[in-house]
Amino acid sequence: MFNHQKYGKQYFMPPTISYDWVKKETLEKAPTWCSVDLRDGNQALPIPMNLEEKLELFQLLVDIGFKEIEVGFPAASDTEFNLLRKLIDNNMIPDDVTIMVITQAREHIIRRTFEAIQGAPRAIVHLYNSTSEAQRRQVFKKSKEEIKQIALNGAVLVKELAEEAGGDIYFQYSPESFPGTEVDYALDICNSVLDIWKPTPDHKAIINIPTTVQIAMPHIFANQIEYIHKNLAYRDGVTLSIHPHNDRGSGVSDAEFGVLAGAERVEGTLFGIGERTGNVDLITLAMNMYSQGFDPELDFSQMNAIREKYEKLTRTEVHERHPYSGDLVFTAFSGSHQDAISKGMKYRQETNTEKWDVPYIPVDPVDIGRNYQADVIRVNSQSGKGGIGYILETNFGVKLPYKMNEAMGYATKKVSDQTSRELSAEEIYQVFRENYVEYHPNFELVDYYFNKGTGQEVTLTIQKEKEQIELQGKGAGSLDAISNALKAHFDIDYALEVYEQQSLGKDSAAEACAQIGISHQGEIYWGAGIHEDITAASVYALVVAVNRLEDALISQKETVK
Ligand SMILES: CC(=O)SCCNC(=O)CCNC(=O)[C@H](O)C(C)(C)COP(=O)(O)OP(=O)(O)OC[C@H]1O[C@@H](n2cnc3c(N)ncnc32)[C@H](O)[C@@H]1OP(=O)(O)O
Ligand SMILES: CC(C)C(=O)C(=O)O
Ligand SMILES: [Mg+2]
C-alpha cells in the first residue's frame, strides 16, 4: 500500500547550527577531487569491471587530472588485489597521483589491504565502519561504545601496519551510514580515531563524511558538515572530505553546500555511477565551477570521448539529458529557445564578445568538444523559424529574408508534423529546395538570352505542360526584362518587393543563392535560385515566385467558380 505514514525522519540535526555557509555564494576554488569510480562505482555495476577495464579507467582518470583515486577494495576480490599489484609492480602510478584503498574495520581485511599496497610510492588507507542508529540496532546489535571500539581497533591496527610497512601512507576514516548517525556521536568517533592517528599539517589525515544513503535535504547536510568542520580535533592536520550519494537526487547540492560549509575534498564518480541512484557526479560539480568562471582543475575538454570510454568500460549508458555530458544537453528543439540561441550566437559573432552568455546554453559546447552544428539547434514539430534559419545559414550558407524565413518555417513544420519526427539539416535543406528552388508546377524556364548584350531585352523559352513557348521582354535591367515578359504572358501584375543574395562558398567559382519576394494584393510570394551566375540565380528565383503567385491566382479562380 502506498502509505506515507510508514516513514519518518531518520536524520539528526547537529547540536548547534551557525548557517555561516549560507552567506557564501559559490565555489571559487576546486576542492581536492577523489574519484571513487574504481571502488564505489565498480561495486554498483551488475558486471564489475575486469582487470584490463580497470587499468583503462585508471588511465582515463589520470588523464582527466585526478590526483587521488580510490583504486578498490583489495580484500574484496582477487581482481581488485591484482589491480593494485599490477599498478604498483609496474610503476604505473604517476608521481603526482595518490591511490587509495578501502577496508572495513576488520582485522583480516585490513591485513589483506596492506598486502595489496606493499611497495606503493604513496597510498591512503581508507577505514570505515557503520555508525548509524539503525545499523547499530539491526545489523551489529551493538552499543554506541562497542561500535566506536570497532573504529578504534581498526585505527590502531592500520597505524601499526603502516609503521611496519614504512613508506608514505596516509589514513582516512569514514563513519559509514553517517546520515542516520547522531552528529555529535559521529564527530566523537572521528575525533577519537584522530587521537590515535595524531595527524599533523605535514602529514594530514582525512575524515570523510558520507551521505551513504541520502535521507535529508542538502541544507541539513551542510549544517552537519559545518558543525563537524568547527568541532573537528587536529583541524589543521585534517582534510575534511565528503562523499555524497544521490538517493534524493541532491548529490550535487550536498557536495556544493558541503564545500561551502567547510569540506575541502569531494569523493564521487564520473557521470554519478554508483550504488543505487549513484554517487555525486564529479563532472557536473566540476563543470558547475567552470561555468561560473572558476578553474575546476579537471579537464573535460574531450567529453564525448570520455563518455564513450566510460560507457564501454562500465557497460552503462549515460542518459541523453545528463548534465553537461548527455547527448541532448545543448540541444534546443523548441522554437523560442532556438530563436534566442541563434540571435545570441549572431550577437556573439558580431560583437566579438569574450564572455559566454548565449541564452539557454550555460557553457560553450565547443569547450567540451561538442559542435554547434550538430548539437545546438535541432528541428522537430516544436521548432520555429529562428532555428530553421539558423540551420540553413550555418550548414548551407543560405540566409533567408525575414519574411521568407517565416514561410520556410511553416513549410518545414508541416513536414515534421506529418512525419512526427526530427528532421536532419539535409532534410531541412531538401524542404527548402522543394519549396523554393525547384518549385514550378505551372511553368518551367527552359532557356533565356539577352539580345545584343544590352541586358535590357530578353528572349526566354518557358515550358507549360508539354508546350514550349517563346516570350520577349524589355526592361530597365535584365531581371526587369524577364519579369515584364512573364507579366505580359500571364497577364499579371506584381511588384518586386524583396531581393537578396549571398554566396554559398568562399571561392569565386562558388554558387550564389538569390531570394526574391514579389507582392500582389498585399501577399508576398517567394522564390529562390541557386546558380554559379548571380543573374541566373535571380532569374530562377523569380520564376519560382511567379509560379507561387500563379498557384494563388488559380486557386482564387477555382474558389470563384
Ligand atoms: C557504503 C559502502 O559502499 S561501504 C563499501 C562496501 N563495499 C563492499 O562491501 C564491496 C566489497 N565487499 C566484499 O567483497 C565483502 O563484503 C568482503 C569480502 C569485504 C567481506 O565479505 P564477508 O566477510 O563474506 O562478509 P560481509 O561483507 O557479508 O560482512 C559482514 C560482516 O562484516 C561486518 N562488517 C561489515 N562492515 C563492517 C565494517 N565496516 N567494520 C567492521 N565490520 C563490518 C558485519 O557486521 C558482518 O559481521 P558478522 O559476520 O559478524 O555478521
Ligand atoms: C565507505 C563509505 C565512504 C561509502 O562509500 C559510503 O558511505 O557511501
Ligand atoms: Mg559510497
Automatic annotation (TrEMBL):
Binding residue positions for Mg(2+): D40, H243, H245, N279
InterPro entries: 2-isopropylmalate_synth_dimer (IPR013709), AIPM/Hcit_synth_CS (IPR002034), Aldolase_TIM (IPR013785), IPM_Synthase (IPR005668), LeuA-like_post-cat (IPR054692), LeuA_allosteric_dom_sf (IPR036230), LeuA_N_DRE-TIM (IPR039371), PYR_CT (IPR000891)
This enzyme's EC code(s): 2.3.3.13
Swiss-Prot/TrEMBL cofactor(s): Mg(2+)
GO cellular component terms attached to this protein's record: cytoplasm
Location (main, coarse): cytoplasm
Location of this chain's protein in the cell: Cytoplasm
GO biological process: L-leucine biosynthetic process
Gene Ontology terms for molecular function: 2-isopropylmalate synthase activity; acetyl-CoA C-acetyltransferase activity; magnesium ion binding
Recorded superkingdom: Bacteria
Catalysed reactions, as listed in the record: 3-methyl-2-oxobutanoate + acetyl-CoA + H2O = (2S)-2-isopropylmalate + CoA + H(+)
Region (Regulatory domain): 439-561
Name of the top EC class for this enzyme: transferase
Keywords per UniProt: Amino-acid biosynthesis, Branched-chain amino acid biosynthesis, Cytoplasm, Leucine biosynthesis, Magnesium, Metal-binding, Transferase
UniProt subunit comment: Homodimer.
Family: Belongs to the alpha-IPM synthase/homocitrate synthase family. LeuA type 2 subfamily.
Protein known as: 2-isopropylmalate synthase
Classification of source organism: Bacteria, Bacillati, Bacillota, Bacilli, Bacillales
Gene: leuA
